[in-house]
Each structure stands twice: as structure tokens, then as C-alpha cells.
Write a structure and sequence with these properties.
alpha+beta; CBS-domain; three-stranded mixed sheet; about 20% strand
């Protein structure tokens, strides 16, 4: 299976981030505008958290808070689980399944390199299976 480094080369390299002091409303606007499910939270170049649509639903909507009056730092996940570019997509999928998360930041020597979503993982798995099926079909048919 491909490494995370290879997957990052194939996908859009834009990393969407927000500051911890920004409003949750601003975070949701960015997610909507770019059709993404999570934002990385940074102070300067340092990754300090992640905020997802799930955080919004569970920690703002269900608690009756206002997204315009709530800062990202109040609801973000602070202990961010991440992967390195040398890990495989298979390892990421296992980690996502085990931890029940949908987004994994990619860090190399403390530097943010990108983010892998569950959609990226599924796409990579399907592509690999299609390649394997094609190779087996060619082998069986003598092609």
C-alpha cells in the first residue's frame, strides 16, 4: 500500500487552518466553503488542535451554545493524533478505525505536511484493489 507521502503528492496540497481564538462560526464557514469536515488549529506554525463538524454538533449545537460567541479553543480536540509521511495508508486506516476519527494530520519532524481524511483512505484502498484486480485479470487471461 502507498505511503502517506505518496498520497499527499496526489491530492490538493492546501492545508486549511484556523486560530484557537477565532469563532466556531468562522471555522464552520471555512469548512463549508471548502467542503471539508475538519480544520487544523494552529498558533503560528504550531499545531495545537483540530476542530471537526462532529465537535460542532456535539459541543455547540447540543449544548445550546452560539457558534458566533464560542471560540475554537473551547471545543477543539487538543490531543491531536497524527501520522508521519513514511507510514502506510493501511496504518492510517487502522488508526482511524481504532480511535474512531476521520482526519489525521501529517507531521514530519514537528512540521505540518498535510492532512489525510477517511475519504483519502477509502480512495487509496479502492485504487489499490482495482490495480490488483486488473493485474490478476491480465494474468488469468494470459495478457
Amino acid at each position: 500500500m502507498k505511503t502517506i507521502r505518496e498520497i499527499l503528492k496526489e491530492k490538493n496540497s492546501t492545508i486549511w487552518c484556523i486560530k484557537p481564538t477565532d469563532s466556531v462560526f468562522a471555522a464552520i464557514q471555512i469548512m463549508d466553503e471548502h467542503q471539508i469536515g475538519a480544520l487544523l488549529v494552529q498558533e503560528g506554525d504550531k499545531l495545537v488542535g483540530i476542530i471537526s463538524e462532529r465537535d460542532y454538533a456535539r459541543k455547540v449545537i447540543l449544548k445550546g451554545k452560539s457558534s458566533k460567541n464560542t471560540q475554537v479553543q473551547e471545543i477543539m480536540t487538543r490531543q491531536v493524533i497524527y501520522v508521519s509521511p513514511s507510514q502506510t495508508m493501511e496504518e492510517c486506516m487502522a488508526l482511524m478505525t481504532e480511535k474512531r476519527i476521520r482526519h489525521l494530520p501529517v507531521l514530519e519532524e514537528g512540521k505540518l505536511m498535510g492532512i489525510i481524511s477517511i475519504g483519502d483512505a477509502v480512495k487509496a484502498a479502492i485504487t489499490e484493489k482495482e490495480f490488483l484486480i486488473d493485474q490478476l485479470t491480465k494474468y488469468i487471461s494470459g495478457g
